[in-house]
Amino acid sequence: MSLKLAKLFCYLAALASGLLVSGCATWSTGEVMNVRPTTQEAKQVSPEKILLTEGDISDRPYAVLGDISVTVNKTTIFHAEPTREMVNDKLREEAAKLGADAVTHVRYGTVGISLMSWGSLDGKGRAVSFTR
After folding, report:
1. How much is the pTM?
2. Range of 53's domain?
3. Which of 3, 16, 72, 130 is the 20 to 30 Å CA partner of 55?
4. Residue 16 domain flag
5. Could you count the other beta carbons within 10 Å of the beta carbon of residue 127?
6. Is 11 within a domain?
7. Is residue 65 part of a domain?
């Protein structure tokens, strides 16, 4: 019985150490929904130049390109919690892929622990392109 217990302990120790060292950074996901079809190819936009706002933009006309949803996850218990800045960076990356000038109606979810991460933060917004 003690040999089986020792093997089980070794197996669990190997599994636990593997989980601790797996993944050394945060990981994130992104999704674009309700994309409006366009006849032209998306323009190249640098993510750093994309404007983010929690409200609407009323001083410039724009066309809606699509709704963006992103999640930034913490890989292990030892990494820092995901921040709004991380979510903002991911929103800008996804908006840049669409050729957007801005992301409006930005909102954030709450940090939580799930089966696949030690913490996550969600962000959503609407990618828009200025018409003038």
Report:
1. 0.70
2. 25-130
3. 72
4. no
5. 29
6. no
7. yes
User: Is position 5 within any domain?
Assistant: no
Q: 97: burial class by Cβ within 10 Å (0-12, 13-18, 19+)?
A: middle
Pairing relationship of beta strands 62-74 and 119-130 according to DSSP bridges:
antiparallel
- Burial readout 55-92 (b: 16 or more C-beta within 10 A, e: otherwise): eeeeeeebeebbbbbbbbbbbbeebeebeeebbbbbbb
The pLDDT, as a whole number, for residue 39 is: 45
Domain count, the chain: 1
- List the CATH number of the domain containing 45: 3.30.110.70
Average pLDDT per block of 10 residues along the chain, 132 residues long: 68 58 51 56 85 96 96 86 94 96 95 75 96 87
